[in-house]
Amino acid sequence: MKDKRMTLKEAVSKYTWDGCTLNIGSICAREPMAVAHEIIRQGRKNITFVTDTTSDPAELLVAADCFSRIEAAYIWIGVVGQGYNIRRAVEEGIPHHIEIEPYSNYTAGLRLMAGAMGVPFLPTKSLLGSDIITHNPKIKVIDDPYGSGPVALVPAANPDTTFIHVQRSDMAGNCQIWGMLGNDDYAARAAKNVVITCEEIVPTGEIRKIPNMTVIPEYVVSAVVELPFGCHPLSVTGCYWMDNPFRQEFIKASRTRDGILAWMDEWVYGVEDHKQYLDKVGRDRLAKLQELEQDNCMIPEIICRTREGM
């Protein structure tokens, strides 16, 4: 099998560019924050961001002025606070106005499914009567040729690149995920380039012991980056708990434009790479997050056994 391993810096440099169309996988957990940091450090601009629901990565990329357009259902921080950065961009044009193309969570997922299937659109009745149709001219309403009445057509999405974080992968990109999948299986097949970041790279033989958990196959993967704690302060099922105190500090800083710029100077621009970021967070703090996850989440027993045998 082909060895597709890269550093994060190499992967972001090769698979993102100014004006690209980008997807970042998962929903609210298992979102690779380290990818957002590196995109910002490399100064990418005018990105079209295609997603369903996302939280901290999009908030940060908006604050760093990386996006010119967002095609999504939901961008927020969730239970710990509101998305000040996306609100400033949409309501006040700070740092600049972002064009929004709205979808529901379901139809945002349909777009990736259509892209994965290689069809130009998928039909749905769920948007009928919704204001989303009014505010999104790309959604077309037609009469069902088979006689069931009007249906809405949602256009396919085929991002230039998707970054998906997984618990483990082999060096070729056979990826295993446990916990919520989101639309990652569709995104991986819809995108032109797929970069996998993972908590650990394991031998292919370990992947083959539980093949039913292999969600993304190597033949759609462009690069693999080993990136432990790659989603901090978000969580990864079976690996580490969400660092909500850290997220609350991010939200506090985001209340003002000067505050978030200072936060990025410290936590993004102020570190050279992900390793320096983790050192700054503190290894004891990260170990505590691992303990909290182990206390609260059961992962498949066979994974525990294979880890112990490695």
How is this structure best described in words?
This protein is of the alpha/beta class and 310 residues long. The chain folds into 2 domains: 8-102 and 158-296, Glutaconate Coenzyme A-transferase (3-Layer(aba) Sandwich), CATH 3.40.1080.10; 121-155, no CATH class. Helices cover 38% and strands 20% of the residues. The chain has 13 helices and 14 strands. The strands form 3 sheets. Strands 1, 2, 4, 6, 10, 11, 12, 13 and 14 form a 9-stranded mixed beta sheet that branches. It has a 3-stranded antiparallel beta sheet with strand order 7-9-8, with helices on one face. A hairpin with a 5-residue loop joins strand 10 and strand 11 (175-176). Helix 1 packs across helix 2 (33-41) and helix 2 (33-41) packs parallel to helix 3. The longest helix is centred in the last third of the chain and has 14 residues, at 283-296. The radius of gyration is 19 Å and the shape is globular. It starts with 7 loop residues before the first helix and ends with a helix.
